[in-house]
Amino acid sequence: MRSLLIAVAIAAGSVVQAATPIQMLLDKGKAIPAYQETSVQGQQMYLAALQRARMAERMAQLINSTFLLKQDVTVVIRSCGVVNAFFQPGTNEISICTEMVEMIGRLASEDADFMNQNSREQFALKIEGLLWSIFLHELGHALVHVNKVPITGREEDVADQFVVWYGAHFVDFNKAALFIPTVWYWSRMSKLSDLPSMSPDQRRAYLANEHSLDGVRVFNVACWAFGTGLAEGIESARAVQLPRERMLRCPNEWEKADASMRTLFKKYVKVAPFRGPW
């Protein structure tokens, strides 16, 4: 498996004024990296590769370098027995499952357009960017729970917005991909969700899930990314053929989402952003 290293740019700098001295003293939680050994044949290879890449350590470092936490959070990479990644409120654990890493590699390898890159490095950059996108989504859940961030509406949509918000302000897209692999992944997942072939019970469970439908997530993320005005956001919208009617509304959607994200999360941010209004 290709190396899973990535250069996500965290803008190291002065502490943002919104993170008050009192918060800095009180909110002393930290992110702790961990790996859970597995006896599941086939998953050991993925776990070992992620350990060599120090993936859990890098994810924990991103949290510790950027955010204040009211409680400790563990970032654990392990075999889960299912294709998933999730935040567990009871234990404050962000789990990245090796089964999901395996599936991402398989889907990417089967996708001729995705594989048609100018170099192996570009392919690896997108795979790595997708892993970070998945992690950031779960980090959004963790921050909402651990820091008791008030939200209304669907938390899953807030976590998706958090990915775009973090990318818009803290990721150097000259070194990392984020939006493009995210919309690619949800596009692929939407193709696997064949509603007509589902039984009534399967369809009911699928539609009742707390997540937005995969196809909806494709266009939501593409729209918000397009609204940022960043080149990668524009390319993401083009890649999924975001309808013009929605595209016209995206800058306003993003402006509102960005303002809301800053209101909710800015006081827990320790560093100056890489770009954007603050």
Structure notes:
Strand 3 (85-88) and strand 4 (93-97) form a beta hairpin. Helix content is 55%, strand content 8%. The chain has helices spanning 21-26, 44-52, 55-66, 98-110, 112-115, 120-146, 155-170, 179-192, 200-208, 214-227, 231-239, 244-247, 250-265, and strands spanning 31-36, 73-78, 85-88, 93-97. Residues 1-16 have low confidence and may be disordered. Helix 6 (120-146) packs across helix 8 (179-192). By secondary structure, it is α/β, with parallel strands linked by helices. The longest helix is centred in the middle third of the chain and has 27 residues, at 120-146. The protein has a four-stranded mixed sheet with strand order 1-2-4-3.
Please give a handful of descriptors for the protein shown.
278 residues, alpha/beta, four-stranded mixed sheet, 13 helices, 55% helix, 8% strand
**What about the largest sheet?**
4 strands, mixed
User: Mean pLDDT across all residues, rounded?
Assistant: 87
Low-confidence region ranges: 1-16
- As a percent range, the share of helical residues equals 55-70%
State Rg: 18 Å
Number of strands: 4
Proportion of beta-strand residues? 5-15%
SSE succession: HEHHEEEHHHHHHHHHH
Structural class: alpha/beta
Shape: globular
Our measurement of the CA-to-CA distance between the termini, rounded to an integer number of angstroms, reads 39 Å
What's the oligomerization state? single chain
User: What is the spatial order of strands in the main beta sheet?
Assistant: 1-2-4-3
**Number of helices, where a helix is a run of at least 4 consecutive DSSP H or I residues:** 13
